[in-house]
Amino acid sequence: AQKVTQAQTEISVVEKEDVTLDCVYETRDTTYYLFWYKQPPSGELVFLIRRNSFDEQNEISGRYSWNFQKSTSSFNFTITASQVVDSAVYFCALSEFLLKTSYDKVIFGPGTSLSVIP
Amino acid sequence: EAQVTQNPRYLITVTGKKLTVTCSQNMNHEYMSWYRQDPGLGLRQIYYSMNVEVTDKGDVPEGYKVSRKEKRNFPLILESPSPNQTSLYFCASRAGQWTGELFFGEGSRLTVL
What we know:
By secondary structure, chain A is mainly β. Chain A has no helices and 12 strands. By secondary structure, chain B is an all-beta fold. In chain B, strand 5 and strand 6 form a beta hairpin.
């Protein structure tokens, strides 16, 4: 069965520190997509990145980077030189296509609340 | 501007009083979905719709109804709300492919007394 685990419930860092948010997933499929979403204090949900199961290249976007490792079923998110504006809840999500129903299924992890202290 | 619009944003109601949370998207997306967000549980899917007149249950459908009569609208109906439906609700849409990212509304915070 699908499952997404974000073991870190809350993290606090001091501004300019690096921080890594962990995401571990479970799936039986070989084809799936992984996502990260950000929920700032204002409450909206913002898409950050998508990665498919066949692309294990790490990705960097400014201060953000993502490390996808199929061998450990992990898709971790690192913020370098954190800033106060990075304070938010971050959700990891897994999407896979269900042949049985011809529909897809998106499962979200419980989220990690990141606080960046000035 | 591409967006998903939910209304109301905040609502306090009483047990048993029917209510509807509206959701509308202007991106011509085929797929729409409702989630509820509760502390420690992340987002859980209530219902989703692959297209007009095609809807199906998500993980926590009990106590909710939906309809998809038009492509742009996907209202969430609570026929007889109960306190355990107090939550933050999000509507989301996506272009048809399952590989795409979700676009979320701003959320509707519902309190059932």
